[in-house]
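Subject: sequence -> structure tokens, single chain

Hey, anyone have a minute? Need the predicted structure for the following. Not urgent.
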Amino acid sequence: MPQQQSHLRVVAEPDFTRVEFAEKHVIDEIVIRQIGQELTKIVDAAPKPRLVVSFRGVEHLSSAALGTLLTVMNRIRAKDGQLRLCDISPQILQIFEITKLNKVLRIEKDLDAAKASLGASA
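Reply:
Had a minute. Here:
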């Protein structure tokens, strides 16, 4: 069975895992499901996951992608881990604000701010 193409770039940093989207448009249902599976594997592999998801370069995001992020956040919280989102463009940030997910998900300006916030409690 051929290996499916990853839709994420994953970088293991010393204190956390950084994830970036390989796609500009995170809107396809199948792609979002695969992203969810990839994120779940990362979370399940760590005893206390610390994940920073960068949206650098993402231009479009579907509501299904938001649902996937909430599912991942709940898995991380269940393991007493931390999730940070960063590098979100103004138009994507507006989606988080309209859906009020900016109140539920921890959003930081950039990677440095996200890294710094991991030291603080959620």
